Amino acid sequence: MSEYHIPALTRELVELLEPEPGMVIVDATIGGGGQALAMLERIQGKGLLIGIDRDPEAISFCQARLSSFAPNLKLFNARFSQLDEVLARSGIKEVDRVYFDLGVSWHQLSEPERGFSFLQDGPLDMRMNPHQGEPAWKILSRLEQRELEKIFREYGEERYSRRVARAIIRMREQDEELKRTRQLAELVEKVVPRGKQRVHPATRIFQAIRIYVNQELEELRLGLEKAFNFLKAGGRIAVISYHSLEDRLVKFFFKEREKAGELKILTKKPLSPSWEEKKQNPKSRSAKLRAGEKIK
Description:
- This protein is α/β, with parallel strands linked by helices.
- The protein contains 13 helices and seven strands.
- It has two domains: 10-107 and 216-294, 3-Layer(aba) Sandwich (Rossmann fold), CATH 3.40.50.150; 111-214, Orthogonal Bundle (DNA polymerase, domain 1), CATH 1.10.150.170.
- The protein has helices at residues 10-17, 34-43, 56-65, 83-89, 106-110, 136-142, 145-156, 161-173, 181-191, 203-214, 216-230, 244-259, 275-280; strands spanning 24-27, 48-53, 73-77, 95-101, 231-241, 263-265, 288-294.
- Strands 3-2-1-4-5-7-6 form a seven-stranded mixed beta sheet, sandwiched between helices.
- α7 (145-156) runs antiparallel to α8 (161-173) and α11 packs parallel to α12.
């Protein structure tokens, strides 16, 4: 198994959440356990960290990596929308802290068979949990042009959505199968002008498909609501996002709760990685951290 990415903004996350011995903390995206490790070191004793991830490989990885913290750790292979079920199964009625570190992990991107990246050829899968739901290739083989356009436009903010959707439909009409990541990347390169942009033309298309395959934005909405419901008064919630769609959703959620008098926003503007962190960990450059404290 390849290594997981270095988590972004860990120092800032710890400073905002102020974990203390005895606290109950939910890591809703445990990934490689980097941030969980920082929390566990501070809540030892009677503290408990509930670690959740959709990816069963992440759970297996963390079981081994964090084994020395076993008495203070419970791990669950679950989605954000199952947060209430996970906490009920753990016999927990309220939590002190909860945080989400969104997006795709370096481990997922670097494993060609997971199909998240166009940098290496692999099956066009993109499922966070390879045992649940439809792989990307199957979805691309059945959706109509209008539906594909909508996905690329809304989840990828791709201005050439129609061209890409049309190219996929044309390929299907010629009875050609679109089942590999490199195939899709090459198809996008042919129809999307590169211009002066530094990012690969397929970047936004791959993001859009991944978000759709995993229902990421809907899962995030549900996860934030359920996490907030379990958060005790004075408890804190934090989210690290990596693209504008996630960040807008989190910002809106925080603003709505603030307007209702339920949340005090702790980050007037989202925190970004320092120059030093970006230099050491270039993949952190787009990270944004927002946090709030529950009032009632």
